[in-house]
Amino acid sequence: MTESPVLIQGQWRKSKSSGTFQAENPATMQPLDGTYPISGWEDCDEALDAAAEAAHALQQMPSERIAIFLETYANQIEASRDKLVELAHAETALPKTPRLADVELPRTTTQLRLAAAAARDNSWVQATIDSQANIRSMYGPLGPVCVFGPNNFPFAFGSISGGDFAAALGAGNPVIAKANSSHPGTTRLFAEAAQRAAEETDMPPGTVQLIYRTPHDVGAQLVSDPRVGATGYTGSRSAGLKLKTAADAAGKPIYLELSSVNPVILLPGVLRERLEDLASEFTSSCLMGAGQFCTNPGMIILIQSAESEAFIKSVSEKFASAPIGTLLSKSVSISLETNLKILQDAGAQCLTGNASGGGAGYSHANALLSISGKEFLGNPATMQTEAFGNSSLFVIAENIREACDILTCLEGNLTGCIYSAANGEDDPEYDRLAPLLRSKVGRLLNDKMPTGVAVSSAMNHGGPFPATGHAGFTAVGIPAAMNRFAALQCYDNIRPHRLPDLLADKNPTGQMWRLIDGTWSTADVSIS
Amino acid sequence: MTESPVLIQGQWRKSKSSGTFQAENPATMQPLDGTYPISGWEDCDEALDAAAEAAHALQQMPSERIAIFLETYANQIEASRDKLVELAHAETALPKTPRLADVELPRTTTQLRLAAAAARDNSWVQATIDSQANIRSMYGPLGPVCVFGPNNFPFAFGSISGGDFAAALGAGNPVIAKANSSHPGTTRLFAEAAQRAAEETDMPPGTVQLIYRTPHDVGAQLVSDPRVGATGYTGSRSAGLKLKTAADAAGKPIYLELSSVNPVILLPGVLRERLEDLASEFTSSCLMGAGQFCTNPGMIILIQSAESEAFIKSVSEKFASAPIGTLLSKSVSISLETNLKILQDAGAQCLTGNASGGGAGYSHANALLSISGKEFLGNPATMQTEAFGNSSLFVIAENIREACDILTCLEGNLTGCIYSAANGEDDPEYDRLAPLLRSKVGRLLNDKMPTGVAVSSAMNHGGPFPATGHAGFTAVGIPAAMNRFAALQCYDNIRPHRLPDLLADKNPTGQMWRLIDGTWSTADVSIS
Fold it and tell me: Is the domain of A219 the same as that of A271?
């Protein structure tokens, strides 16, 4: 059986591996052709050397060249669309259309082109000039970035194609990608396209590199290596926290997206106004992609009433009759079952969907659990266990005060949402709940399910720990996501001819935004 | 002997302490009057409760009120100037004038007023509006901030008066200050002034709180408590790394300023041009305040030549004949001696000043060490030991290539400086060295000693680990320093009347900078 090569220093070569693994088609539960190497330290060490060299070369390069690389890569991805969609479908069971071909692939190329535009524009560096003191500063590249992509977005969050990749490259850093083990072939196709683009645009070898998997200790060594600038990780909490411990001890930034139950509160008035619409909206948001979104609404907080009972009844019927999707992998399926059991053992009642299987391949019945606010408050940590997949937990508060107590107990989440009546009758309750929810989430929504994460400059796909590792940063949204992979660089009394163009008196493009003596401006520094 | 009270929840009260300590006058080596409590967990727990309540209240408050508090506090400090200078002089032996009264105190009140202005202006929140998608985001307060101040700036970096305090408050967070044990009385005077200002401006109790010291395990528990937003720490590497381990494990941001040798490179041409001037400039920079600056030039890299020998000879003479300052404390004195010994045991030669004492109280002869580039490269980690105080290490490279190798081995530093000839003859060497140095430091300087840290919007008082905990942040410079204590808060589809004023269509002041659809602007969002 053919073993896929790793991509190191611009060369596809056989891994110095400690073993191999196979991908599996989750819809058929059958292994897919080919094997992938489990890289030992030697592969990582060589990749780090090449990345360090590439980082140095990229730092000397005008950002225009990085922009052209990213755009060429986006074109390459579009040229490989059919192969990518085909293989990703086989490896993840995500629908080819609209999901992979018409939603995720365009999102991926859009992100790359936005990062290219931001790199070209250079405003993201937040050039700050104190003309009196002749002190000037800007963000600059941090060094090689390791990206560990998640299982649920093989394109748009992929290790060598997704948001972290685009942000790291856009900020001028080479990337060492660690494929997600559930779609190694898709990641390889992206790496091939990326490497073709790198060669076509004459980027240094080591700009983009790929390994597929490492033993845990090797991964920990990788993210804490002195040659690394930072790491982006999206995945399970347990694996992420192990990497965090290693990176933290070495003083290496690591940006984690770990887990989130994304609480949604439906206030009594809005249920009276449009109960059936909301039941449909929630059901389709929660079951889309078999619920395998970071921003899936995994916890619905209701105030006990006849309407909340009717809502639960309606949703339960919809869940029971909706088609059952295929889960991304065996491990997702095991983990969903385990976590649903943890919730039930802690007192949650299963309203519907207490059975594995029911769909093609790895699957689980669409599951709804329920618990009273009082019981939730008796064991809030366990009751916030994320059951990643087509499931959600109703938490029924006795009254608004108990709902406030529930919000106070929440861990950090990516999103939090409050639905309220259009006629304003819920506004007093909204005003009590919103400040509590605000402090627990990165993105606060009104009247809208959190599942969609728009690629917007104002997006925050982040939030307080343990949703992410640092509440000040977002993983989606160009240019803000780029600043995660940047160092603040100050130039004090530097002779004018030695300043980076971006900090020179003359605005390098006439369009770049710079903060000059406290005023954002696209003008030159005025010589007074 | 009177035990000083702690300030918790707006009340000066007796600590629930596990012991006490005394301050000492380092110039006389005699204990000062009064004792200070070592707080156990109970004090911290109560302070955290009060801080959490204060954080909630501050979040609901217009930033104008925080600005007024900070300005009132600055006025209070000026009213207490004589007492502050007197006691700080007794506790630290720093000169009353110009240092404490004419430099550090004005710097302190300037920082507080700049933070007030930034809070009032609100541009620091980087309000970002996507008007099409109706997604809006900004930085907002993170929650209670613990500040552990250093020994060397009792005013300008003091726990309850300095840069971290101003930044945390300016961003809307209450502060729990942990005094530095070497100047607890000075810190208490500041806390008294802060509390008077808090009362005068009707701030919530718990806005400013003070403890003096904790056992190590209690400090670790404090920075990792769920009620904490973040911690700012400036001090020794060993104590800082212990706090970092605790905070990291809890997912709590901690901003550390640990240690830095601040390499300065003097190229051959500039030595030919003005050797004696440079010898004086370096000597006065290195011995100012007995060398007890975070940005003290602790490592001078020279290229072997007749000029470099002459420079070393001249500096050695100046060091031998310069007055010997008093060190900040017994522990600084012990640590200086220990670290000079570590350097010598590893092969550095002492050129002058190999003796403790010689000045008033705790002191050490002005010390110069020297090592060859080759020996440095044989043991680069040990040779970068910071000997905090009136000392510096010459590293003599055989040639420019060896100087490059030395830079490649450097740890992260706050600053790095290159002096080069005015006539341009050093420029080829500069061009080889500067990119290597750039990647190792937060602030790159030309032709200027690094000791001064201007309070400038473009300043970066930060740098790669282990100089600080994260190369993306600065501890000096308003408003950038404030963003360390902020969370990114996104508002997605929020009904207009519920948006924070700062994100409403109408610019709240007509002067606040906001990034609207990619353009920095002080205008309203235009309704299209």
Answer: no
